[in-house]
Design brief:
Layout (H helix, E strand, L loop, with lengths): L2 H6 L6 H9 L8 H9 L2 H11 L6 H8 L8 H4 L15 H22 L6 H21 L9 H17 L13 H22 L5 H30 L16 H13 L19 H16 L3 H22 L7 H6 L2 H33 L4 H27 L8 H18 L5 H34 L14 H13 L3 H11 L18 E3 L5 E3 L4 H21 L5 H21 L1 H36 L7 E2 L2 E2 L1 H22 L7 H26 L7 H6 L4 H8 L16
Antiparallel strand pairs: 1-2, 3-4
Length: about 750
């Protein structure tokens, strides 16, 4: 080895050196301050000072006192400067001199460095020691011994290393993101935190021991900082609940754990690519990797005694996610006062949004929330149920508040159908989410929903009562032009037809919420909805009516009475009959077109109503066309076999005048139902045309052809048919020219 290398590098101690040192008497141990001075004054500096002082003998003594260490393993003779002899050049210093110096200077320095800078302990080895220590403490606790052992040194060492690891991840303003850690890093961190938690719990059992007090505080402080980091990362992962668009490069996953596993697999499968969100099994928008992290972090917090913080973070994040979904679905949170201030048109739109959103939230989002909570807290079913119940309970109360606000608004006929929609939604949706809640919460929501449904039910029954009152109060004296269908008839029949689309629900409403006394008042009893049945002896028996059926029949009877009263406003009996036929046919058509309404009214009622219409039809024919046909009666036209021409002329003149008047008047009358209109025209034609043709054929030749015939025979049978087809169109049609 060159002398330069020997100068720059301290020679290692050989086994022989060490053996020689063992045989030599040890020098006096240096004091801490001396050791520090010696460490700060390298041997090279000492040699340099000694070399400089050899040129200035007058300063040798003072320099030696100031710079040389005391008793550092070198005897006084060799360490004190000597005037006269030349100090050897360091470059020519031989190996023997270096060995001598090494023997005297190096051992004390190396020994001091080994004591000040020991090799760092291994965390894995310390973890094993901690596990054994925990086991011994557990056995000690179970054995009931009163005096626990002193804390081993490795407990303090473990605490220092774990705190350093936490500092590495959670330092400064930008901590390391959890999804940037590899699987190994995150697992190592959580294992360390779990051991800190275990040690803290184990030592807490001996909190009365003063010797453990400091360590209990230290481990508690470390655990609190670790959990603060875990809690924040748990929150950030929970907030990442949106499935990223795989087509957007900025949304590509940067999960280092995922990338690490993907890179490992890509070595084996060159065609392997990172799985896209569509290929992953997602729960509420979380990928499998994030879900796995959520599970591990939640376990760490709960195991570490931070269950309340974990649940609070989870609840707040998922509640915000649910409210975000509510906003996306178009539902806004409204108080009862807000509902009462809205116009009905606005409330109709809000109700439609409420129904759609409530059904989707209950059937889809709550189900997804159940899967998520059961996955994240798979080892803690009670926590999962309580969190899910809290989330669902809060959102459900929002929906119930809106429903209650609607139920308490001013009642009117137009609101019936929205009331029914809300009633059905509450009835059908709440059982779906009933098992989401703990028993006491479920009971509270059932009670709240029951109150709202009662308010809605009572409001709907009240609306039907008000409908009855409106029919009774309709005392208008204005005739409907042309004997057309009365507007109230159209309103009532359309209203009842629409209402009967909710027949099952209204049956339930009247059965459960109508406050009446009846013999059979058992809840849930069923009724026969046919008005009449037949027993084996073919005797007709009136069946019991359900409350809703009785309500419908009563409403129909009131309306029939109202129409009959309105018919008396017409002075012309024929027009009165047309009015009754129009309203009666409209009513029958609506009933026949609605299976539910038809079943409620029954076949007997329908047949009776049809019979009434036929009677009105006959009355119309008698009043209008019977008088006309009297003109065509042969009685009084002949005397002793000779036609009395003056009488015949009057007959034709009367027929022409009456037919003109009927055509002029009844062309303005209205029969909106095409079938009824056709039936009337056919019946009139069958009644009038054959009689007129016969009369004309028998007596038409009496008149002199030419001007006399044209004057008295104004219509041919074909003309009569044409003019009859003009009737009931609602427009006055001018008389056309007769057919030749």
């Amino acid at each position: 080895m060159d002398s330069d290398d020997q100068k720059d590098k301290p020679l290692p101690e050989t086994p022989m050196d060490i053996a020689d040192q063992k045989d030599k008497p040890l020098p006096e141990a240096p004091s801490p301050m001396d050791a520090a001075d010696n460490q700060n004054s390298p041997p090279e500096n000492i040699k340099k000072d000694a070399h400089d002082n050899s040129d200035h003998p007058e300063n040798n003594s003072e320099a030696g006192d100031q710079h040389l260490p005391q008793n550092h393993g070198v005897d006084d003779a060799s360490s004190s400067p000597k005037p006269g002899p030349e100090v050897p050049d360091p470059n020519t210093e031989n190996a023997e001199d270096l060995e001598v110096k090494g023997e005297h200077e190096e051992p004390a320095q190396v020994k001091h460095q080994e004591e000040s800078f020991p090799l760092p302990p291994d965390l894995n080895k310390l973890s094993q020691d901690i596990d054994q220590f925990l086991s011994s403490l557990s056995n000690l606790s179970e054995g009931g011994e009163s005096t626990p052992p002193d804390l081993p040194i490795f407990v303090e060492q473990f605490m220092v290393l774990v705190e350093a690891k936490i500092e590495e991840y959670d330092s400064g303003d930008i901590p390391v993101k959890w999804d940037r850690l590899t699987v190994g890093e995150s697992a190592s961190y959580l294992e360390a935190v779990n051991r800190v938690s275990s040690v803290s719990k184990a030592l807490a059992k001996f909190s009365s021991q003063h010797k453990y007090a400091s360590s209990i505080n230290d481990f508690g402080r470390i655990l609190q900082r670790a959990m603060s980091y875990v809690e924040e990362e748990f929150k950030l992962l929970l907030e990442d609940h949106k499935i990223h668009d795989s087509s957007d490069p900025s949304h590509k996953t940067n999960d280092s754990k995922h990338n690490q596993s993907s890179n490992q697999e890509s070595d084996e499968n060159p065609h392997h690519e990172s799985s896209s969100p569509e290929e992953e099994t997602n729960i509420s928008g979380y990928s499998e990797e994030i879900l796995s992290d959520l599970i591990r972090l939640s376990k760490a917090m709960i195991t570490g005694g931070y269950e309340a913080e974990c649940c609070q973070v989870y609840y707040v994040v998922r509640r915000n996610a649910l409210e975000e979904n509510l906003n996306k679905l178009g539902f806004e949170k409204h108080s009862i006062d807000d509902v009462h201030k809205m116009s009905w048109e606005t409330l109709e739109r809000e109700t439609e949004s409420w129904i759609k959103t409530f059904k989707k939230i209950a059937n889809l989002h709550f189900s997804s929330e159940r899967k998520l909570s059961e996955a994240v807290f798979s080892d803690y079913p009670s926590i999962s149920q309580n969190l899910l119940g809290s989330l669902s309970h809060g959102v459900t109360l929002q929906f119930l508040n809106f429903a209650e606000g609607i139920a308490l608004t001013k009642r009117s006929g137009e609101k019936l159908f929205k009331f029914l929609d809300i009633y059905e939604t509450l009835r059908d949706t709440l059982p779906v989410i009933d098992n989401l809640f703990p028993e006491e919460w479920a009971a509270e929501l059932k009670n709240e929903a029951s109150i709202i449904r009662s308010h809605l039910g009572e409001a709907m029954i009240s609306i039907f009562n008000e409908l009855e009152n409106s029919i009774k109060a309709d005392s208008g004296k204005t005739q409907v032009p042309g004997g057309a269908v009365h507007p109230l008839t159209k309103y009532i029949m359309n209203y009842l037809e629409y209402a009967c689309e909710y027949k099952g629900t209204l049956e339930q409403v009247f059965r459960e919420h109508q406050k009446i006394e009846r013999a059979d008042s058992n809840p849930g009893s069923e009724y026969d909805y046919n008005s009449q049945t037949q027993n084996p002896s073919n005797e007709k028996v009136v069946a019991r009516q359900s409350p809703f059926q009785a309500q419908i029949i009563k409403t129909m009877e009131l309306q029939d009475a109202n129409v009959e009263g309105k018919s008396k406003l017409y002075k012309d009996p024929s027009l009165s009959s047309i009015f009754m036929m129009n309203n009666g046919r409209y009513t029958l058509k609506k009933i026949k077109g609605s299976a539910d309404l038809n079943s409620l009214m029954g076949e007997t009622w329908y047949r009776k109503k049809s019979s009434d219409l036929r009677q009105y039809h006959k009355g119309y024919q008698r009043e209008t066309w019977g008088k006309l046909l009297n003109c065509l009666h042969p009685e009084g036209l002949t005397v002793k076999g000779k036609v009395m021409k003056p009488v015949l002329k009057e007959r034709f003149k009367s027929f022409n005048a009456m037919f003109d008047e009927i055509h002029k008047t009844q062309s303005n009358w209205v029969v909106g139902d095409e079938q009824l209109q056709s039936e009337l025209r056919v019946s009139i034609s069958n009644m009038v045309i054959p009689a007129y043709r016969s009369f004309l054929g028998r007596y038409g030749q009496t008149f002199t052809p030419g001007r006399q015939t044209e004057k008295y025979v104004k219509f041919q049978p074909e003309d009569i048919e044409t003019y009859i087809d003009d009737l009931f169109d609602g427009n006055a049609a001018p008389m056309g020219r007769k057919k030749v």
